[in-house]
């Protein structure tokens, strides 16, 4: 999971090695202009065939992996033509996802070729081949070339599955359903079988029971809530809300000592709770008032969970004015309602009101939605309302969408390829992915209309807590990135409607508090990233029982007992906190990757059953006994620097080890390393080791090491040319290569050395393949996150002269930082979790305010001595740093640091 944080920006690559050619003639559309469409596909015995058909003028190309389309034109007419190929990304329903991926125009004189390269993995593309007459009159030459992947078939997935709610009486016969109706990614409904984790024993016990099941054949969970109601009307009702109980007793003219029964509560038909409840939002007890017809819950100032109202089907009048309600889905069953007041709340959608056709009075003003189309069926019957449909804005999908923030609107316009004119709901409602990276967005108003979104990245903007409310309507969300914003707290049920959410990124904010109910509803969440905040209490994560990965480094957490229920965890990064007890992790036996560096841990015996562990980082603690690692036969990476370790025999049989850091301990004998021939990195300095002969047979194969090969003469192995007292050896540093001087020519084209970096730039700037990228374009970039899969060449960064924020973390690479010398406007630079040794290139970056160099191989920090504007500096995880004196003059100015002088 090392690149979980970055994976959402990474696109797969497919090697192109084979060309399949087919021919088509469109004489009926353009005279004397035959076309050849070439689709380049994967090589090998399993190379897919290109399947062509010509139904009604449409040509369909089906291929597993198509990455390039060529259109060759033979123009035999006397008139010169301009031809173009336009590629649009679409989903399986034909909805446009990314309006224009590329558009290349060529002069079709004689024989010409136009190409558009596209990257395709489990997706579909629609290609229009267009003809231009002197670039003015556009004519479609071929209708649509639909290119699908996955062997011509879309991988069918479940798009939506609603939870099941059932209410029965005590003793009634009931069997859990064997099937459930779901919405597939094709837009069609399907009835699929359910496999329940537990069965219903009986219905004799009154209460609310939860059942969890999975849809057979799909990695999708379904929940069923079963409420078993008592049939004994004389039974006393135990209230959860004492204030509500008192109000009802007063309504029934009962004294405080009286024990209310279900029979009593059935007598209540009207109830006013306006200005009551003292902010207590618990209205669960209202479910017993089954004969209620008139309910007033106005001016309570609460964010009510309206689920208890679901069964009050006799309600005809309901007042919820002046609260903080954002979800009204429980109201959809109240079909007898005639008067409903929802004004002054936080609604982003009124879809649940669509079937309340008996309404004659409806108030909706002062909410977060202006889409009143769900009232279409009864709008004309409303004799009292406080809203109007503006004909200029249209209705339903023709409605005009407004965005408060100009930068957000600009990004959306790029995504849908609409530079000007009104944005209509129909143009954005089916968008699946949206990336708004480093644009300084402050308001998310309007984004609540993008209800089809599944992946949303808002990295490096200026979003504050108050803006989270606009995300509550995005129920299809699977991946949400809010990293590097201005969040300070996460409120209760902030993401409750996102039941499909699998990854949530909250890194690099200023979060100090997460409400205990913040993650309610996220039962499918697998990856949670909350690194680089100021979090002390993680109680909120205890309900995330399906969590696979939790990244929480660089916080202030001391108690991890909330992790005890998270038995499915395979990856936890908890470095640089204040943890002393890791026993709560003992039940998560599937761990593969665990990082607890920079804490106060002394005992790791609870890890004894974690036989699947592949990567273990325990440096900078107080650990002396590492016997538990003996059973971790799959371990490839062990970092145990800066502890109190003497005995390393437990590592003797870990023959898969590739990286081993044991420096700065109390080790004398390294005989246990003799069989670890797969080691590529080994750190042993700052111990009491005199004899290194156990590693002599593979010493030359160790690419990164911090010691000379000294053999104890008394051991019979003789001596090498090394010194006898084993001084620490600094690995040779490759002389830095000075990058060529970049001439300031805004119109000059930039030829990228790293194609991956070029792709990222094009995405951020909205530039299509084929469009020239100039130095002037790159001067417009002020924030950038490098996301590489293979090529880690950063020489192209020398052109980003106006860059203020740069993230190069999590690559475990010894970057050559010379290109950064040019970036003198940098204020934020993240280089953590790499293998960097030399930081001399940073000495001229005098405007730096935040610098993260943690978890590298740095020993010399003298280049930092003149960076007097630094307010945040992280150096932990660099065991080679022994001398902090170069930064003594700036130390007291640091507001954030992870080291002491």
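^ structure tokens above, recovered residues below v
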């Amino acid at each position: 999971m090392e690149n979980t944080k970055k994976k959402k920006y990474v696109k797969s690559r497919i090697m192109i090695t084979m060309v399949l050619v087919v021919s088509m003639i469109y004489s009926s559309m353009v005279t004397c202009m035959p076309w050849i469409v070439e689709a380049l596909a994967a090589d090998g015995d399993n190379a897919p065939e290109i399947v062509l058909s010509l139904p009604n003028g449409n040509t369909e190309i089906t291929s597993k992996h198509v990455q390039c389309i060529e259109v060759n034109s033979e123009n035999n007419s006397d008139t010169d033509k301009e031809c173009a190929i336009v590629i649009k990304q679409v989903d399986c329903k034909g909805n446009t996802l990314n309006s224009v991926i590329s558009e290349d125009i060529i002069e079709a004189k004689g024989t010409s070729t136009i190409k558009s390269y596209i990257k395709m993995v489990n997706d579909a593309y629609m290609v229009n081949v267009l003809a231009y007459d002197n670039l003015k009159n556009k004519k479609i030459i071929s209708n649509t070339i639909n290119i699908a992947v996955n062997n011509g078939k879309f991988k069918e997935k479940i798009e939506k599955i609603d939870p099941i709610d059932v209410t029965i009486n005590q003793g009634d016969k009931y069997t859990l359903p064997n099937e459930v109706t779901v919405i597939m990614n094709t837009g069609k409904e399907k009835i699929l079988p359910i496999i329940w984790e537990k069965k219903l024993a009986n219905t004799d016990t009154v209460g609310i029971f939860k059942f969890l099941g999975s849809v057979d054949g799909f990695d999708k969970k379904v929940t069923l809530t079963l409420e078993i109601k008592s049939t004994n009307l004389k039974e006393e009702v135990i209230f959860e809300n004492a204030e509500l109980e008192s109000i009802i007793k007063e309504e029934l003219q009962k004294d405080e000592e009286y024990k209310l029964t279900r029979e009593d509560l059935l007598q209540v038909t009207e109830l006013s709770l306006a200005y009551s409840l003292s902010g207590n939002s618990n209205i669960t007890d209202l479910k017993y008032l089954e004969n209620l017809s008139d309910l007033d819950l106005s001016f309570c100032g609460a964010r009510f969970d309206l689920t208890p109202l679901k069964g009050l089907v006799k309600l005809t009048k309901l007042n919820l004015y002046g609260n903080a309600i954002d979800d009204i889905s429980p109201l959809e069953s109240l079909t007898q309602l005639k008067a409903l007041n929802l004004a002054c709340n936080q609604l982003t959608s009124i879809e649940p009101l669509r079937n309340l056709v008996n309404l004659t009075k409806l108030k909706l003003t002062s909410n977060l939605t202006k889409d009143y189309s769900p009232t279409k069926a009864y709008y004309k019957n409303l004799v009292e309302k406080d809203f109007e449909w503006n004909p200029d804005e249209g209705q339903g999908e023709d409605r005009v969408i407004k965005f408060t923030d100009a930068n957000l609107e600009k990004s959306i316009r790029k995504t849908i390829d609409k530079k000007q004119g009104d944005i209509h709901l129909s143009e954005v409602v089916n968008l699946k992915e949206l990336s708004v990276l480093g644009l300084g967005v402050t308001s998310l108003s309007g984004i609540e209309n993008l209800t089809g979104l599944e992946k949303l990245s808002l990295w490096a903007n200026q979003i504050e807590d108050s803006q989270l409310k606009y995300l509550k309507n995005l129920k299809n969300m699977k991946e949400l990135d809010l990293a590097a914003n201005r969040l300070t707290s996460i409120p209760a049920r902030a993401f409750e409607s996102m039941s499909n959410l699998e990854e949530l990124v909250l890194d690099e904010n200023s979060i100090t508090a997460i409400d205990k109910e913040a993650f309610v509803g996220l039962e499918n969440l697998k990856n949670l990233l909350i690194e680089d905040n100021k979090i002390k209490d993680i109680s909120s994560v205890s309900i995330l029982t399906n969590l696979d990965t939790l990244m929480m480094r660089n916080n202030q957490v001391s108690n991890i007992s909330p992790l005890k229920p998270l038995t499915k965890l395979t990856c936890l990064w908890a470095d640089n906190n204040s943890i002393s007890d890791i026993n709560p992790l003992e039940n998560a036996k599937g761990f593969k990757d665990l990082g607890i560096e920079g804490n106060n841990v002394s005992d790791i015996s609870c890890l004894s059953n974690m036989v699947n562990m592949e990567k273990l980082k325990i440096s900078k603690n107080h650990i002396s006994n590492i016997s538990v690692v003996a059973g971790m036969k799959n371990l490839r990476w062990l970092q145990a620097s800066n502890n109190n370790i003497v005995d390393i025999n437990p590592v003797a049989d870990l023959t898969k080890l590739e990286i081993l850091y044991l420096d700065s301990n109390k080790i004398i004998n390294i005989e246990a390393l003799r069989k670890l021939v797969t080691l590529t990195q080994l750190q042993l300095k700052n111990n009491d080791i005199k004899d290194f002969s156990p590693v002599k047979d593979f010493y030359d194969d160790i690419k990164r090491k911090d010691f000379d090969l000294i053999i104890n003469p008394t051991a019979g192995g003789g001596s090498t040319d090394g010194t006898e007292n084993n001084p620490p050896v600094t690995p040779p540093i490759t002389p830095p290569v000075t990058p060529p001087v970049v001439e300031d020519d805004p119109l000059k084209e930039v030829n990228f050395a790293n194609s991956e970096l070029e792709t990222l730039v094009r995405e951020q700037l909205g530039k299509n393949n084929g469009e020239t990228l100039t130095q002037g374009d790159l001067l417009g970039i002020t924030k950038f996150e490098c996301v590489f899969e293979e090529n880690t060449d950063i020489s192209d960064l020398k052109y980003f002269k106006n860059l203020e924020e740069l993230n190069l973390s999590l690559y475990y690479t010894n970057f050559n930082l010379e290109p950064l010398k040019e970036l003198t406007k940098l204020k934020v630079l993240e280089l953590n979790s790499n293998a960097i040794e030399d930081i001399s290139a940073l000495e001229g970056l005098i405007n730096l305010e935040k610098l993260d160099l943690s978890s590298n191989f740095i020993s010399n920090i003298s280049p930092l001595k003149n960076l007097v504007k630094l307010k945040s500096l992280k150096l932990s995880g660099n065991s080679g740093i022994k001398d902090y004196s170069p930064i003594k003059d700036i130390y007291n100015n640091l507001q954030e640091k992870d080291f002491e002088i």
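Residues 681 and 704 are 5 Å apart (CA to CA).
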